Amino acid sequence: MHFGGVKAFADGSLGSNSALFYEAYDNDPHNYGLQVTDMIWLQNATMHADKCRLQVAIHAIGDKANDMVLDMYSTVASYNGLRDRRFKIEHCQHLVPESPKRFGKQLVIASVQPDHLLDDAEPAEKKLGIVRAQSGSYLFKSLFDSNATVAFGSDWPVADINPLGAIRTAIHRVPPGWENAWIPSERTTLDEAMKASTISAAYAAFLDKDLGSLSKAKYADFVVLPANSWDELLENLPDTVLATYVNGNQVYP
User: Fold this and answer.
1) Cross-referenced InterPro entries, in alphabetical order (predicted)?
2) What is the DSSP letter of 11?
3) Please, are residues 75 and 56 in contact by the beta-carbon 8 Å criterion?
4) pLDDT per residue as tens digits for the range 12-61
5) Alpha-carbon distance 23 to 242, whole Å?
6) pLDDT at 1 over 80
7) What is residue 94's DSSP assignment?
8) Contacts of 10 by beta carbon, 8 Å cutoff, 6+ apart
9) 94: which strand partners?
């Protein structure tokens, strides 16, 4: 049982050169980013929140910030003992190559927002350099392959709330004006993207017993898409739905 959740911040953002990295920014060589919360305070607060059965989610964008939070989560879980706590890291946008495996091993949920990569592809390569950006940015496929629970979201109102757009972005990874995918090796399958948007998103919110799949005893919340097969859906993912049902009742159109 859990009793709600709390959120904290480990670093800033890529856009403001305040996401925390191991290496300095290429366009700001004396800047490694900003740690916005003292880690001793954050660990103590997380320890206390976890003891109170609150789910903890922490914003981390840079590769160093993500590792610091993973280290801290490991310490808290070891100290407080095994249970179904579902720690989350929000964004997980830049990781060192070894970090995706840690999400899977530690059972930390990667709560990511695919549409952010549409705006970040060009700035990331300018701010981090092409090699570093392409080896560590938005590692969705690596997270899936490491058996991590990946939950898709929108970060609305910062990004579009439409989940169909996020699914398309995760599958294709083609920023506006580009002809090719950004880091094509990190493209997800349709099945992975759909799972991240449904059952995994529900699991991340402790709602998987009620939502996330069409199953007995769950709410019948679902949409009808304009496609006759998964192959057709993959070929031309729509922007809109034909119908929406909430608890078995049609609410749109």
Assistant:
1) Amidohydro_3, Metal_Hydrolase
2) B
3) no
4) 999 999 999 999 999 999 999 999 999 999 999 999 999 999 999 999 99
5) 47
6) no
7) B
8) 20, 35, 36, 37, 42, 58, 59, 60, 65, 66, 68, 69
9) 137
> Nearest to residue 170, comparing CAs of 157, 183, 156?
183
Please say if the pLDDT value at position 2 is more than 80: no
| Helix (H), strand (E) at residue 164 | helix 163-172
Closest-CA residue to 119 (of 132, 138, 102, 100):
138
* Domains located in the chain, CATH noted: 5-209 (3.20.20.140), 219-253 (no CATH)
Q: How far apart are CA 124 and CA 117, in angstroms?
A: 9
For residue range 88-144, list pLDDT tens digits in order: 999 999 999 999 999 999 999 999 999 999 999 999 999 999 999 999 999 999 999
Q: Six-digit token pair at 80?
A: 């407080």
Residues whose CB is less than 8 angstroms from the CB of residue 253 and which lie 6 or more positions away in sequence, other chains included: 243
E-strand ranges in the chain read 5-9, 55-60, 88-91, 109-112, 150-152, 222-224, 243-246, 249-252
Mean pLDDT over 209-233 rounds to 94
Alpha carbons 142 and 101: distance in angstroms, whole number: 8
Total number of residues shown for the chain? 253
pLDDT in tens, 130-187: 999 999 999 999 999 999 999 999 999 988 999 999 999 999 999 999 999 999 999 9
pLDDT of residue 3: 80
For residues 212 and 219, give the distance between their C-alpha atoms in angstroms, rounded to a whole number: 9
Amino acid at 104: G
